[in-house]
Structures are given as structure tokens and as C-alpha cells.
């Protein structure tokens, strides 16, 4: 995924729980968006995700294939269930 697209998708999710990132190799990381580094010298732009077990995973933006916000899915399901 392009760096600007990844940043645009991740900014509103900063600090939110239940966000999943699919990496190009097919692996997945799900947890809380903790940090996004963009302008550090000699480093790749990346995002840090804190998993439920407390481990922090650093994912470079250029390896992100997909970003899934599971919060919006559960909110939509809750709203749909409430309307019935």
C-alpha cells in the first residue's frame, strides 16, 4: 500500500482498539494503533500495533496490504440489531 494511503487510513484509527492490518506476506496483526512514525531520519514510515497479549509489532507502511477497522463493523451490526 502506498505510504500516503496507509497514513490516511490509519490516522482516524489512532488509539483505537480492534484494528487489523494485513501484511503483503499474508500475516495479520490485530490490536490497538499505538504509534505512527513518518519523518524520522533513516527509517521507513511505520505503524506500531499493540496486540492483546501486550506485544508491540512494528509494520512498515510499504508492506501493508489492507487495513480493517473491526470497530465500524461491530457498530454497524449493533445499529442494525437495534433497529429490528
Regions with little confidence, pLDDT below 50 for 5+ residues: 78-84
Helix content: 25-40%
Distance between the termini: 38 Å
Instruction: Specify the structural class.
Output: alpha+beta
In the sheet with the most strands, the strands line up as: 4-3-2-1-5
Mean of all residue-level pLDDT scores: 81
Radius of gyration: 14 Å
> How many strands, which pairing sense, and closed or not: the largest β-sheet?
5 strands, antiparallel
If helices are DSSP runs of H or I spanning 4 or more residues, what is the number of helices? 2
Shape: globular
Q: Tell me the fraction of residues in β-strands, as a range.
A: 35-45%
What is the number of beta strands?
Answer: 5
List the secondary-structure elements in sequence, H or E: HEEEEEH
List keywords for this structure.
alpha+beta, 2 helices, 5 strands, disordered C terminus, globular, 84 residues, single chain, 5-stranded antiparallel sheet, 37% strand
List the helices and strands and how they pair.
Elements: H1 3-10, E1 19-23, E2 28-37, E3 46-50, E4 56-60, E5 64-69, H2 70-83
Antiparallel strand pairs: 1-2, 1-5, 2-3, 3-4
What does the model show?
- There is one protein chain.
- A hairpin with an 8-residue loop joins strand 2 and strand 3 (46-50).
- By secondary structure, the chain is α+β, with helices and mostly antiparallel strands.
- The protein has a 5-stranded antiparallel β-sheet with strand order 4-3-2-1-5.
- The protein has helices at residues 3-10, 70-83; strands at 19-23, 28-37, 46-50, 56-60, 64-69.
- The protein contains 2 helices and 5 strands.
- The chain starts with a helix and ends with a helix.
- Mean pLDDT is 81; it is low at 78-84.
Amino acid at each position: 500500500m502506498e505510504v500516503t494511503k496507509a497514513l490516511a487510513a490509519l490516522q482516524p484509527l489512532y488509539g483505537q482498539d480492534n484494528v487489523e492490518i494485513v501484511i503483503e506476506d499474508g500475516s495479520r496483526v490485530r490490536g490497538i494503533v499505538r504509534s505512527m512514525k513518518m519523518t524520522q531520519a533513516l527509517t521507513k514510515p511505520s505503524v506500531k500495533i499493540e496486540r492483546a497479549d501486550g506485544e508491540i509489532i512494528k509494520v512498515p507502511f510499504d508492506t501493508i496490504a489492507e487495513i480493517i477497522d473491526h470497530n465500524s463493523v461491530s457498530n454497524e451490526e449493533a445499529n442494525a440489531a437495534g433497529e429490528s
